[in-house]
């Protein structure tokens, strides 16, 4: 299978590197194009055999599946100018949440799906979120599910939970990285520990926490109960968090959904649906 990647920015680059590292695709299986060609050339220098294209039409013709990894408002123009090259046997995978599979299908006669990845996929872990188009063949569903399964745990979602699922899976690493940095900042400002030591300890704690959850040794609730002894130090810390956290995460999801609604209005205006 020849896979084209349109856009080698953050997520496009992560998919490319993860596919190669997992062994799911070899560099010779990958065709890439980027608005700034130097960014694509960086990957060619790193991975011998990878092909960098100057024009999108040629990449599409030479690829079986095309991953569209560009900004939401750039997708309409890309599809409109290239729709004749997306012949019936090909497959489009869009990775952005504000553009629905139905919108992509309206400009392409091939199999279409949306797969929202996560930065955690770079470590061959985490989740990828799938939504299939009405004309997407079973063969392409199985093929891309298997491909993404080599770098993530694929999960099918409905359109109604696209944003919140993406918040948890795709934005979640940034949210919890921010909280961890604040955790470290609090430790260094309130105690004698230095930032480097606190960062190492916090990072290793998170890795260990992830392993406990991955191996299903404890659930989230059971894990908190195991650590939080009644009347102990952890309990005091939890009480302090409860007093301060308030509506933090409620506000977070309200903010992301507000921005998502703005993006939806713009993409619906472009696609006319």
From TrEMBL:
Single GO biological process annotation from the record: L-proline biosynthetic process
Residue ranges constituting the Pyrroline-5-carboxylate reductase dimerisation domain according to the UniProt record: 162-261
Molecular function (Gene Ontology), one example: pyrroline-5-carboxylate reductase activity
The protein's name: Late competence protein ComER
Residue ranges constituting the Pyrroline-5-carboxylate reductase catalytic N-terminal domain according to the UniProt record: 3-97
Protein family: Belongs to the pyrroline-5-carboxylate reductase family.
Pfam families: F420_oxidored, P5CR_dimer
InterPro entries: 6-PGluconate_DH-like_C_sf, NAD(P)-bd_dom_sf, P5C_Rdtase_cat_N, P5CR-like_CS, P5CR_dimer, Pyrroline-COOH_reductase
PANTHER family in UniProt: COME OPERON PROTEIN 4 (PTHR11645:SF51), PYRROLINE-5-CARBOXYLATE REDUCTASE (PTHR11645)
